[in-house]
Amino acid sequence: MFLLLILLLPLVIFVYQKWHYSYWKRRGVYQVEPNFLYGNLKEFANGNLCISDELKNLYDEFKSKGLLYGGYYAFTKPTFMPIDVNIVKHILQKDFGHFVNRGIYFNKERCPLSAHLFTLEGEKWKTLRAKLTPTFTTEEAACSIGSQF
């Protein structure tokens, strides 16, 4: 019995991994084929590329295929990458309430400037956004730019 369990365990892990890394395929979204455990960030994990270069490569691949969006895996986490500017605009303007937590790590004590609108989550994000939103209204932008344009 124990021998059977040892033989079946790798098969179960393999099947689960295949199922997990087909998240985007099951939803009809194009995905770059991921690596086990690394997802699509293998070069970053190995120290060969910085995260921005790795994400830029994924973006370029989606864009070169003429896609409006794509899916990739940040290690084991399925992550959506919009390419089309209209989709980005819709997410940032209409659907922002669903995307308040972005999962970006920051350390406020070690780097106080890292606690900004793109890294904060929950109530802290909501409070800061409420303070900043009036600054970016059409009227405020017109006042700060003036009538030159």
UniProtKB/TrEMBL annotation:
Alphabetic keyword roster: Endoplasmic reticulum, Heme, Iron, Membrane, Metal-binding, Microsome, Monooxygenase, Oxidoreductase, Signal
Subcellular location: Endoplasmic reticulum membrane; Microsome membrane
Pfam families: p450 (PF00067)
Molecular-function annotations in GO: heme binding; iron ion binding; monooxygenase activity; oxidoreductase activity, acting on paired donors, with incorporation or reduction of molecular oxygen
Family to which this protein belongs: Belongs to the cytochrome P450 family.
Lineage: superkingdom: Eukaryota
Record InterPro entries: Cyt_P450 (IPR001128), Cyt_P450_sf (IPR036396), Insect_CytP450_Detox (IPR050476)
Name of this chain's protein: Probable cytochrome P450 6a17
Protein species of origin: Diabrotica virgifera virgifera (western corn rootworm)
Membrane topology: Peripheral membrane protein
Keyword Lyase among record annotations: no
Signal sequence annotation: 1-17
Cofactor(s) demanded: heme
GO cellular component, one term: endoplasmic reticulum membrane
